[in-house]
Write a structure and sequence with these properties.
This protein is α/β, with parallel strands linked by helices and about 500 residues long. It has 3 domains: about 160 residues, FAD/NAD(P)-binding domain (3-Layer(bba) Sandwich); about 120 residues, FAD/NAD(P)-binding domain; about 130 residues, Enolase-like, domain 1 (2-Layer Sandwich). About 20% of the residues lie in helices and about 25% in strands. The strands form 7 sheets. Strands 1, 2, 5, 6, 7, 8, 21 and 22 form an 8-stranded mixed sheet that branches. Strands 11-18-12-13-14 form a 5-stranded parallel sheet. The chain has a 5-stranded antiparallel sheet with strand order 25-26-29-28-27. The longest helix is centred in the middle third of the chain and has 17 residues. The protein is globular. GO terms for molecular function: DNA binding; FAD binding; NAD(P)H oxidase H2O2-forming activity; protein dimerization activity. It is found in: Cytoplasm, Perinuclear region; Mitochondrion inner membrane; Mitochondrion intermembrane space; Nucleus. Keywords: Acetylation, Apoptosis, Cytoplasm, DNA-binding, FAD, Flavoprotein, Isopeptide bond, Membrane, Mitochondrion, Mitochondrion inner membrane, NAD, Nucleus, Oxidoreductase, Phosphoprotein, Transit peptide, Ubl conjugation. One of its GO terms (biological process) is mitochondrial respiratory chain complex assembly.
């Protein structure tokens, strides 16, 4: 449970209003050829893929969220840097390259209503919002919704993403606590809260926690908001970055105005004198007005039991074959899929690029393509417009690493990279071209003041090794070179001198 911190009256946005008028029908179809469970990136990519190969296809997306499919990366990145006071209503944002777009993959007009699905001459994609699939009858090829409606299908995709764990840490009083941060509603809620309180605490030192800390840290400089970030590791991104780079990142987050508390294990949270009091296991206490727990997500496998689907005991998620099939007419894509990577072994990946590509491939295979999943997906993280990195493969700080660095210039930033390439979402696989169509912004985003580097980690390449073979690569403030990294991992060779390999990325060019 958590306090409802959104304003229910004016801010059910224009996009939401349109979405609901399109997506909430009076009479549901009792059968759909293609049923997609989940309304995220993987599901949308699958729908586009199905329609591309089967132009008359009828596709029904069922999502328990109130919104049409949208991209999640901007929720912790660009949306926070918008200078538009109505950004929580429009959900339009300027990308680092200055171009503007909506967080939604497509406007409401792209979809048809579920009640039209049976009769639409050319088929279409319908989204059923605010409905949850609670039971799968695999033999009968049908599902049951939380309102007892039954829908049968010919082919089904499970793209249910992640959900919060039952309990991340002991909270004795739930007022003003956001347990997770994962949706448009969470963004609206946190935006509103952060403008009306004195102190906010983020628990978690991973991608999401660090991005939110930097975003809110910038706001703290304008409004005097105290932003605290705490986590069990010794530094930001401690599970991913080698220690020296984690230390550098921690200093960067501090320079954004964030108070960082490391090696912090939460014992309990109580409510005392109008404040939340976070008690750490070592006795330290932090008083705050609001908590965001950027921890504790796990793959949503709620349907495994009723569907009789196999869950991977090591990585979680539904086990699928090379074609992302869990059963003969059931596919799984995105965060919930545990797939076999021919180079790196069995894996589960939780990033935008993987959601796009696995969703697209699952959609193709649902129409009979029979293609194996071989793509080595990448991911990226930006600590604001001036520091960012792209990564591929297994990036785990417990592995041996070799880093090769060069001096950065003003063009070695996420903002400069997107200006040069003209792309917004830094994923090679973001091919939803009509969705990503951009229009020039009336006022370009203000250029950030170039940050003077205080050390030698301006830009570089970090190689992660397993049995002397490169299994992961991070490109630190080095952009648009992912095909080179992908080839190095695909080749799977031992390298005598990784300094020579680093030259492939041209990091020493001016």
């Amino acid at each position: 449970p958590r306090a409802d911190l959104t304003d229910p009256s004016p801010a059910l946005t224009r996009a939401r209003g349109a979405a609901e008028s399109v997506a909430v029908p009076h009479k549901l179809p009792s059968h759909t050829p293609y049923l997609l469970i989940g309304g995220g990136t993987a599901s949308f990519a699958a729908a586009r893929s199905i329609r591309a190969r089967d132009p008359g296809a009828r596709v029904l997306i069922v999502t328990d969220e109130p919104d049409l499919p949208y991209m999640r990366p901007p929720l912790s990145k660009e949306l926070w840097f918008s200078d538009d006071p109505s950004v929580t209503e429009t959900l339009r944002f300027k990308q680092w390259n200055g171009k503007e777009r909506s967080i939604y993959f497509q406007p409401a007009s792209f979809y048809i209503s579920a009640e039209e699905l049976d009769s639409a001459e050319n088929g279409g994609v319908a989204v059923l919002t605010g409905k949850k699939v609670v039971h799968m009858d695999v033999r009968g090829n049908k599902v049951k919704l939380d309102d007892d409606t039954e829908i049968s299908y010919d082919k089904c995709l499970i793209a249910t993403g992640k959900k919060k764990k039952k309990k991340c840490f002991a909270i004795n009083y739930f007022f003003n606590v956001v347990e997770t941060y994962a949706s448009i509603e969470d963004f609206k809620s946190l935006d509103k809260v952060s403008r009306n309180i004195e102190s906010i605490t983020i628990i978690g030192g991973g991608f999401l926690g660090s991005e939110l800390a930097c975003a809110l840290g910038r706001r703290s400089n304008e409004s005097g908001l105290e932003v605290v970030q705490m986590y069990p590791e010794k530094g930001n991104m401690g599970k991913v970055l080698p220690e020296y780079l984690s230390n550098w990142t921690t200093e960067k987050v501090k320079r954004e105005g964030v108070k960082v508390i490391t090696e912090a294990l939460v014992k309990s949270v109580t409510f005392k004198d109008d404040k939340l009091e976070v008690q750490l296991k070592d006795g330290r206490k932090v008083r705050t007005d609001h908590i965001v727990a950027a921890v504790g997500l796990e793959p949503n496998i709620d349907l495994a039991k009723s569907a009789g689907l196999e869950v991977d005991p090591d990585f979680g998620g539904y086990r699928v074959n090379a074609e992302l099939q869990a059963r003969s007419n059931i596919w799984v894509a995105g965060d919930a899929a545990c797939f076999y990577d021919i180079r790196l072994g069995r894996r589960r990946v939780e990033h935008h690029d993987h959601a796009v590509v696995s969703g697209r491939l699952a959609g193709e295979n649902m129409t009979g393509a029979n293609k194996p999943y071989w793509h080595q997906s990448m991911f990226w993280s930006d600590l604001g417009p001036d520091v960012g990195y792209e990564a591929i493969g297994i990036v785990d700080s417990s592995l041996p690493t070799v880093g090769v660095f060069a001096k950065a210039t003003e063009k070695d930033t996420p903002k400069a990279a997107t200006e040069k390439s003209g792309t917004g979402i830094r994923s090679e696989s973001e091919t939803e071209e009509t969705a990503a169509s951009t229009e020039p912004s009336s006022s370009p985003a203000p250029a950030p003041t170039p940050e003077k580097q205080k050390d030698d980690y301006g830009k570089g390449v970090i190689f992660y090794l397993r049995d002397k073979v490169v299994v992961g690569i991070i490109l630190w403030n080095v952009f648009n070179r992912m095909p080179i990294a992908r080839k190095i991992i695909k080749d799977g060779e031992e390298h005598a001198d990784l300094n020579e390999v680093a030259k492939l990325f041209n990091i020493h060019e001016d």
